[in-house]
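Issue: ligand-bound run for tetrahydrodeoxyuridine - logging full I/O for the record.

Environment: standard queue, default settings, no custom constraints.

Inputs:
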Amino acid sequence: MADHITLSKELEESLVEYAKKAMKNSYSPYSHFQVGAALLTSDGNIYMGCNVENSSYGATNCAERTAFYKAVSEGHHSFYAIAIVGGERGNITGICTPCGICRQVMREFCDENFIILLGNSQGYKRYTLGDMLPYSFSLLGPNG
Ligand code: THU
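Outputs:
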């Protein structure tokens, strides 16, 4: 678990740019809703993810979970922030908020200070996991 931290504006902006890049790989032939995520580990690595849909819809994986599972499968368990962008056919005039399952997956590895950057074509807004998943459930205790 990471303590409360502040990222530079440059790093936050670059995470949002990585999320936009990741969105281009979205495999979403059913919903046409493209999502990209960029996850920053506490040792400075960035893992990108996109949504990967399936003919059997329930097998779909969201962009955020793709990024987390890539990072965890490479040995990372400590994270500072995630940037997320998404919209229909890649139109990112609006923001894409993480789904409930993804918020719970974030909670497995992150505490309430984990930073969530929601980007769009104009810029981004900063939230925390505590904002997005209050009164969260974890078997690991309040700080993971
Ligand atoms: N999706 C994500 O990738 N992340 C979210 O947090 C919201 C939803 C994807 C899943 C599906 O491929 C498409 O967006 C429409 O739900």
